[in-house]
Amino acid sequence: MNVNAVARIASLIGEPTRTTMMLRLMDGRALTSRELASAAGITAATASRHLTMLVEGGLLDVTALGRHRYHRIASAEVAMLLESIMQLSGANAAPAARRTGPRDEVMRRARTCYDHLAGRLGVAIAQRLAQERAILIEPEAVRITNRASESLGKLGVELAALPGAAQRRPRALCRPCMDWSERRFHLGGRLGAAICSGCMARGWLSRKPGSRALDITPAGQIGLRDWLGLELWQPVAA
C-alpha cells in the first residue's frame, strides 16, 4: 500500500472548497469551472487551481470543448467513495441530529448517486428485484440470477445489452451501494445506471435544475407504482 498516495487522495477530498465542487458533480453531469466556482462561492481563478489538483489526482476528468473545459467525476469508484464519506459523516453526527441524509424531502424520495438511483425510490427498486429473486444482495456484491432478464424487461432494461463491459477500466455489472439517507442498499454499477437512464428515457423521472434531486413525473407515478406494487410504492410516494 502506498501510504502517501492514500494521504494525497484524502487531502484532496478533505478541503471544503474541493469537497463542495465534487459534491456538485455527483449527479453525473459535467460542469464548467465557472459553474463550479459559483457553486463553491469562489473566483474562477481559485476554482481553476483546485480543479487542476483534482484532475491531477485522478478524482475528476476534464474535457475541452471550444472555450470551455467541462469537469466530471472521474469514475464510479470516486462517486462511491464520496457517497461513503457522506454516509459516514451522517453516522458520526451529533445525537441531536436524528434524521440522516439530506433534509430536502424531494432528495430523500429520489436522487442520483452519480449515475444511478438513490433515495427511497432506489431502495424500493432494489427491494423489488430482490423480492422477485432477480438479484441476491450481499454485503459486498449483488448476484444476478437467471430470473433477472424477465424482471428487468418489465422495467424496459435489457440485461444482455448493458454497456461498459469492454471499457478500459471495466465497471462492475452490479454492486450494492449503501443509501445515504435510507441506510439500506440501492443498486450501483452498470445495471444501476441502466435502470436510471431507462426511467429517464421513458419520461418517468426528470432532473431538477441545479440539484441531484429527481422529480417523479405523472407517467412515472403510474409506471413505477405498477412495477413496484403498492406495498413498495407507498413509502416512495409518502
Model description:
- The chain is of the alpha+beta class.
- The protein has 2 domains: 3-74, Arc Repressor Mutant, subunit A; 100-237, no CATH class.
- Helices cover 48% and strands 17% of the residues.
- Strand 2 and strand 3 (68-73) form a beta hairpin.
- Helix 2 (16-24) packs across helix 3 and helix 7 (119-131) runs antiparallel to helix 11.
- The longest helix has 16 residues, at 76-91.
- The radius of gyration is 18 Å and the shape is globular.
- The chain starts with a helix and ends with a helix.
Q: Taking Cα atoms only, what radius of gyration do you get, to the nearest Å?
A: 18 Å
Q: What amount of the residues lies in strands?
A: 15-25%
For the largest beta-sheet, the strand count, sense and barrel status come to: 3 strands, antiparallel
Number of helical elements: 11
The dominant shape is globular
Helix content: 40-55%
Q: Which whole number gives the mean pLDDT?
A: 86
User: How far is it from the N-terminal to the C-terminal residue, by CA?
Assistant: 46 Å
Domain unit count:
2
The helix-and-strand class reads alpha+beta
Strand order of the largest sheet: 1-3-2
Number of strands: 11
Low-confidence stretches: 94-101
What series of H and E elements makes up the topology? HHEHHEEHHEEHEEHEEHEEHH
